[in-house]
Hints:
Blueprint: H1 8-35, H2 53-60, H3 67-95, H4 103-111, H5 118-142, H6 146-151, H7 161-183, H8 188-195, H9 200-228, H10 232-235, H11 244-251, H12 259-300
Amino acid sequence: MSGQRRPTSFYYLAAFFATFIIFLYGPMLIIVMLSFQGPQGGLTFPMNGMSTFWFEQLWEGVGVIDIWRGFRRSLQLGLVVMTLTVILSLAAGLAFRQRFFGASTVFFVVVSSLIMPSIVVSLGIGLGFQLLDDSVMWIGENYEIGYILEEFETTTGLFTSALGAHLTWTLPFGLLIMFAVFNRFNQAHEEAARDLGANQWQTIRYVVIPIIAPSLIGVALFGFTLSYDELARTQQAAGSKNTLPLDLQGLTTTVTTPEIYALGTVTLAVSFAIIFTTVAIVMHLQRRRSAHGSDAGKGMV
């Protein structure tokens, strides 16, 4: 059997998979390579020298755009979106374990945002907050509220309209993950906790959450990464403060040096660092759970 020849379809599928991997990671590798060119380097091959010159230029700043400010904004917004996505997805997953009136409608309303064009969602949220601004100004003018007339500018911003736009993208993924987790969750653990006198909150805190912790970390990773590099849903909803993807979009039409590749390499490194850190945490939790299971088994023996 070991010497049996593989069917021809195996080689076709292997070639297709290899092509897919090259198509997926090839552009990243090219950007990383071109970012390490010398001072006379260009935007295409062949490379002109090898150095970290463009990273040094990036550290000093890119034209009139403050890249590091955009990075901080994206990082802060991503962390807030990640936190809210985990909390709301967990709460929704627990709620959907019980049948309630309108559950199917609520589910389809939440998931429908995945099939809506992102730019349409962004435009709709932007227009909605513009109407809110007009309403606030109308109230201020008609009731002569000094604070509104003198201080109010807009309700749009990173942690209002942009936050809402990003949540329309991250929450459906988090909810779908929670559905998959709770569909295979063994409720015997909860029943055992209640038999031992635990109330509902103690059961969730000390039993449910520790068991599904790796999945919650996965939801957090989804929430952060989807928010960190989101462009379309941010364009019309972020107001006057750009995130890193918006700055990158602007730089593609103004920067004609490998400095833009250096920025792409730094962004790529941050993304992979977050992914590898998350994977390491999940693996640690799984090993600790296995160790605890083995110890419990030995104790029973």
